[in-house]
Design brief:
This protein is α/β, with parallel strands linked by helices and 485 residues long. It contains 14 helices and eight strands.
């Protein structure tokens, strides 16, 4: 009994110390982001907010090209394109849709919309799918360049911005107006992404709403405030064609890296390295009489609603950003401390999962250890003698956890209302569960890539909301525009 008790004591103590110290460091890291944001809001409290109605007029003429990469999207692409055509309030745009020759269903769905509206330009790639989203976007880029050469477009009427969307997106009516107004001042513009909460999958789909509500209202704001590079979300972003051409010239003709699982994240970092001026634009749609969806100008979409689909998506994100992305993008320039900090935060997910799993094991082991030492007085005396540092870390981490969940609820409530803010509590643990399952899968995928496995578009099944009723379940607070010089 004595030897077994010693083993349990040592196991519980070491796990508590490892998990407690790691979670404490991560909690302080998150707390610093919160404090920077709070100070920013206090200092800018009296500053006028940028809204759609107060946007300056566009600085020139030209078309906006919207890129939509589509593989096996027959279930959503037709409705998405029709909805975009109905919603967009802009005089000059064209939607380029990239499809694959071996995806007949998606081709037919896109062709049916293109026959009714010449603003849809379907581009069939030369390779069978799936390749990667970046490869499909490269096909669209080359089609745009060919159109410019074929039509001999006048320099003053060339494409002003390339906008990227996913096949399941519900676009905002005013977004092209926002891009058109700001693209002369900024090379890269990112709108917020506000996932729709699926009523039949509130726990799983809703945890994306919680994460993006906090990420795209606080974390990315802090990134731009401190001068760090702004990673793109892969949707709802506009890029100046000249900057894409510069990236393409440096990469042998393709602006998007076809070997990347998270080309959007990497492209944002690459553009910043080339000196692109980025803007995260959170604006209120206050245009009277407009057909916009109201609230914040943002991208809405259903995210995965099942545990299996969510794990697949988080596996790709974790592999592309925290594992393979580390190899591909490395660190920032030596003096760019803000970039170093943000890249470190981006890559901490696998370690955070290990710490989280250790913590979940350590607490019951600690309780078992205490119970085996006899009565309450004996257990209390033992705990104070054997676990002083671990106990202090446990208390500190509990306080940080309460703060973290309170902040999550505030940001969810700001974007989705009080009811969803309450749901954010159980969804916090759902998100942890998804990450715990995704982490080992991401490691397996990463090892396969190190052995030479080609990246494949491991996309999730998409669903488009019923637009016969208003799909926007978000109500938002005041607009916020934050820029990085």
């Amino acid at each position: 009994m004595g030897e077994s008790l010693w083993i349990i004591d040592a196991f519980a103590r070491e796990m508590l110390l490892f998990a407690g110290l790691g979670l404490f460091v991560g909690g302080i890291d998150d707390l610093l982001i919160d404090l920077i944001f709070i100070v920013h809001r206090i200092r800018g409290g009296g500053r006028p907010r940028l809204t759609v109605a107060t946007l300056p007029p566009p600085g020139g003429l030209g078309r906006i090209a919207v890129f939509v990469a589509a593989w096996d999207e027959v279930a959503v692409i037709g409705t998405m394109l029709s909805t975009a055509l109905d919603r967009y309030e802009h005089d000059d745009y064209r939607i380029y849709v990239g499809v694959y020759p071996n995806d007949r269903g998606t081709i037919d769905a896109v062709a049916a919309v293109a026959e009714r509206d010449a603003r849809i330009r379907m581009v069939i790639g030369v390779r069978d799918g799936p390749t990667t989203k970046a490869d499909c976007l490269n096909t669209l880029w080359h089609a745009l360049c060919r159109d410019h050469r074929r039509l001999q477009v006048d320099a003053g009427r060339r494409t002003r911005a390339v906008v990227i969307h996913d096949a399941e997106d519900v676009v905002h009516a005013q977004e092209l107006r926002v891009f058109d107004s700001l693209i002369d001042r900024y090379d890269v513009i990112q709108l917020p992404v506000l996932p729709l909460v699926h009523r039949r999958a509130r726990l799983v789909s809703g945890h994306y709403a919680d994460e993006f509500a906090e990420s795209h209202a606080k974390q990315i704001v802090v990134r731009t405030l401190i001068g760090a590079a702004m990673p793109l979300a892969g949707t709802g972003c506009a890029i100046a064609p000249g900057m894409l051409a510069k990236v393409a010239d440096a990469r042998g003709g393709d602006p998007f890296d076809a070997t990347s699982l998270t080309e959007d994240y990497e492209l944002g970092l690459r553009l910043a390295e080339l000196g692109a001026r980025g803007l995260f634009a959170r604006l209120v749609d206050d245009v009277a009489g407009g057909t916009g969806t109201g609230g914040v100008v943002a991208v809405r979409a259903y995210f995965p609603g099942t545990l299996a689909e969510s794990v697949r998506q988080k596996t790709r994100w974790m592999t592309g950003i925290a594992l393979a992305g580390w190899d591909r993008t490395g660190w920032a320039r030596g003096h760019a401390l803000a970039d170093h900090w943000m890249r470190m935060r981006d890559r901490r997910a696998p370690l955070a999962v290990v710490l989280l799993a250790t913590g979940y094991l350590a607490v019951p082991a600690w309780i078992a250890s205490l119970s085996m030492h006899g009565g309450a007085a004996s257990a209390s005396s033992y705990a104070n003698g054997a676990y002083p540092v671990a106990l202090w870390l446990l208390v500190a981490n509990a306080v940080l956890l309460v703060w973290r969940m309170a902040v999550r609820m505030v940001f969810t409530g700001r974007s989705y209302g009080v009811r969803e803010a309450l749901w954010a509590l159980p969804r916090f643990f759902v998100g942890n569960l998804v990450s715990l399952i995704a982490a080992p899968r991401a490691l397996v995928v990463y090892i396969g890539m190190l052995r030479g496995a080609a990246p494949v578009w491991d996309k999730t099944r998409h669903e488009f909301p019923d637009v016969s009723i208003d799909p926007v379940v978000a109500t938002t607070g005041p607009g916020l525009a934050t820029m990085a010089g």
